[in-house]
Amino acid sequence: MAGVIKLLPDHVANQIAAGEVVQRPASVVKELLENAIDAGADQIKLIVKDGGKALIQVVDNGQGMSTTDSRMCFERHATSKLTTAEELYALKTKGFRGEALASIAAIAHIELQTRTESEEVGTQIRIAGSEVTDQQPIATPKGTAILVKNLFYNIPARRNFLKSPQVESRHITDEFHRVALAHPDIAFQYFSNGSELFQLPKTNLRKRIVHVFGSKTNEKLVPVTEETQMVKVSGFLCKPEFAKKSRGEQFFFVNNRFIKSPYLHHAVMNAFEGLIRPNTFPGYFLYLEMDPSSIDVNIHPTKTEIKFHDDHSLYAILRSALKHSLGQFNVAPVLDFEKDPNLETPYAYRQRSAEAPSVEVDSAFNPFSGNVKPVSGFKKATKEAWEALYLETEKQAASRNIPSQIERDPVQARMFEKSAVQESGVRTFQFKQKYVVSSIKSGMLIIHQNRAHQRVLYNKFLKELSQNNTVSQQLLFPLSLSFSKSDMDLVREIQTELIDHGFLFEEIGEEQLTLSGVPIQITEGEVGIVIDELIATRKEGAASSFSTTELLAQSMCRAMAIKTGSSLDTSSQQGLVNDLFACKESGRSPFNKTVYIVISENDIENKFN
Fold it and tell me: In the chain, what is the straight-line distance between the N-terminal and C-terminal CA atoms, in Å?
């Protein structure tokens, strides 16, 4: 029988490898920027068109490549970073596998121009589908310029899975942020569709964060510094009052390499416990410096996940460092247990002088002597006085038809009598200020008050916004809101739809927008929360499956719904139940979560078996 196992052709193997390394245009941007950093460049330029589908170009002033190296860099597993297996556990560079350029060349058209400082003439290479179509000498500056066109041109199925240019551009911007924040000592430029989005000069870490996320970020930052034998922690936290609904400004770097770590993120959230509102996330820019031998960066093709040898100790150190930083800069609340509030002088009495008390004391008073004189204004109670008081109480009770005898066991009597709640027709009560409990024929109904109110508000807002006659209320004073540059790009994308729904924009700048009018359904204090919710929803990728009207209704209902912990009176509870079951989809919230559950009478009876 002939063998059925064969070696894959190189171009097929490269396309398979590309599926692991190149997931979208942002993956190409990440690999090319990291190669430029490894080449020693201190000035890097990124140019993108149509979200990276048409063009991605990275130009650097690094050390460049020779003619031989410019051909070898596109071969699989060709790298200058490793020579032995032991060096894999002492990596200090970004790339090391030697798969990135080979994978990119298998699925795109590439043009490379490079020159070293010692050579007078550089090299130009053109590649299409892993095949070199042209190579010739060229006059070019020192460094490397690599251009990637028509990504996934030979894999239509993969190209069809790419999102819109706007969505792909946001992913590229995210990758650019990660690389730029990891290297504030390198100057970056970023151009998209002919317009300059970022021009970042060489600077320190704090200024780099401000340049990337806007000037308003400076007032939010709290520095973090901690050094131990295991790890050196540095960077910045955002103050608790600036916590957002989205996870946008959250960055971990280990040895200047961006990573994703839910475990370390939990340590950060633990440090902020009790300082931020529920369902909000603090911003942080944390840099960890560790011995390369104590981490493993080779567990994921994109190198965004790292395995720590002692993650439990790292968790404890990080949490302790963050708590210390929050307390040191008076961000956490401080309690003074030695301060007695009873000894504080009211402000109105600070300028007054001391006054002698007007109480008179009888120094000759002796309670054990037989001749006790009554204090002026008081008389000693006698037996006749008590009897007169009892008779008067009996007369008042008889005139008001109040029984004079008290029941021996009032609690037991109330348990077995018909309750006043049932007599008045009220069938709801609130439990833990989170649930509304109501009795029904088949048993008991437990309603999540926040989700129920979200469903009611969502249906109301969606109906009003869909009628295209939303009334806009003029603000007495224009309202200014600050956002990062990437968030402002999202606002510009949906500006027309927001205007149709009642938002009146007076000015839209790079980092700030000014509103002169808002929809009548929203109060002025809720505008910022609603827009934050809308931006967070679009960042999560929900924009592709929902219209702007639906997203705006979701943002408004989430911001304005009754929160957990809010007390509701009986009429509000009953009104919420009635409004909920007037909705068509009462069982699910606008975010597809369960609104209520029913506990049948049989389930209750089974608990007593």
Answer: 69
